[in-house]
Amino acid sequence: MQKIKYTFLDGTTSEIEVTDEIYSVHLEITQAERRLYWRESRRQTSLENLTAQGIDFIDTAANPLAKYIQNENTEHIEKAVAALSDKQRKLIYAVFVEGKTLTEIAKSENVTQPAITQRLATAIKKLKKLLQKTL
User: Fold this and answer.
1) Which residues pair with 3 in a beta bridge?
2) How far is CA 36 from the centre of its chain?
3) How many other C-beta atoms can be found within 10 angstroms of the C-beta atom of residue 91?
């Protein structure tokens, strides 16, 4: 016999004793629910989470100065990306514009995913260095 513990929304808990067979079915259902929740939520990022990470969203329509700054930043980024090698530029474009995963890129280039990860890290490091020089 196994015990299953339920916690209700109001904070109260209840325990019931069940057979091993029912417990294993309950365990499978619980694990399936967790996998489903993970699949559904792994690519969703809340606005609050992005703001907590320091990513701000500016209403450029209401603020002409913000629009000017955004355009200036875009120009700096475009110049920095142009200074990258062709391979790095294509990788940055594939990841950040086309939204491809590193695994997809690795398969298409017939290399390992860690190799693509390292190449992306190098490209981003170079971009940061170039952007620091221009600001």
Assistant:
1) 17
2) 18
3) 22
Q: Token pair for residue 106?
A: 């690795």
Per-residue pLDDT tens, the chain, 135 aa: give them: 888 888 888 888 899 898 989 888 988 998 988 888 777 766 666 666 667 766 666 665 666 666 666 677 778 888 888 888 999 999 988 888 888 888 999 999 999 999 999 999 999 889 888 888 765
Is the whole model's pTM more than 0.85, yes or no? no
Q: How far apart are CA 88 and CA 80, in angstroms?
A: 11
CA atoms within 13 A on the CB side of 9: 0
**Contact criterion met (CB below 8 Å) for 83 and 130:** yes
What is the spatial distance between Cα 112 and Cα 41, in angstroms, rounded to a whole number? Answer: 27
Question: Which tokens sit at 83?
Answer: 């200074």
Q: From the centroid of its chain, how far is CA 48? A: 14
